[in-house]
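Hi V.,

Quick status before I head out on leave. The structure for the redesign project is tokenized and pasted below; the design run finished overnight.
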């Protein structure tokens, strides 16, 4: 079982779509396949959703999509999901399940470049490389080793740069990209994944003329 369309076990879209192949042995053994049972589990192996997917002929591919909305409804959003697929016959007997773990990693920490203007600073980050990029957060403070949070947030939005006006002091900056799963991802398993913020960058007071 792999991520549909791209293969592998890493997804970088809002929805997780997976695919698998109905074993040829099902036809060889004369099994009357009714459908497939799909269990979606959290990282602690708790089943958070069970659905049934239509059967396909032996050796044919079937797909299942665990949508962003389902992820929300099931106590997410989660970046790690385990998907187990069973074959179910017409007597409602289940085969041994096949389980694959899928992950949606937090976007990598950006690099930051600060350019000085007249009483202004332009903070620009490297471009994100994820398909479901949603935005960038830039934090700043006149104090080194500052804590990132709402109090120090200068910008949040779809641009990868921000211009800070009327600068009269040395500033320190940090930045992070986020994707469609948001800035903090928490599930019922009480595990959270925070953003990968950059190292702290310093910029001296810009020219006044």
């Amino acid at each position: 079982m792999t991520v549909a369309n791209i293969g592998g076990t890493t997804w970088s879209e809002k929805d997780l779509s997976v695919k698998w192949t109905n074993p040829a042995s099902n036809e060889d053994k004369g099994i009357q396949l009714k459908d497939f049972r799909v269990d979606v589990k959290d990282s602690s192996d708790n089943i958070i959703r069970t659905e049934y997917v239509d059967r396909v002929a032996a050796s044919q591919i079937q797909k299942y999509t665990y949508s962003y909305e389902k992820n929300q409804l099931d106590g997410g959003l989660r970046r790690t999901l385990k998907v187990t697929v069973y074959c179910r016959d017409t007597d409602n007997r289940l085969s041994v399940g096949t389980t694959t773990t899928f992950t949606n990693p937090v976007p990598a920490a950006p690099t930051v470049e600060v350019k000085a203007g007249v009483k202004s600073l332009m903070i620009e980050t490297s471009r994100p490389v994820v398909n479901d990029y949603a935005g960038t957060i830039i934090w700043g403070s006149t104090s080194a080793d500052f804590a990132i949070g709402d109090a120090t947030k200068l910008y949040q939005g779809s641009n990868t740069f921000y211009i800070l006006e009327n600068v009269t002091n040395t500033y320190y900056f940090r930045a992070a990209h986020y994707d469609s799963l948001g800035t903090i991802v928490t599930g019922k398993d009480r595990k959270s994944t925070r953003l990968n913020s950059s190292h702290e960058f310093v910029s001296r007071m810009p020219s006044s003329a």
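Above is the designed sequence. Confidence is low (pLDDT under 50) at residues 185-193.

G. will cover questions while I'm gone.

Best,
W.
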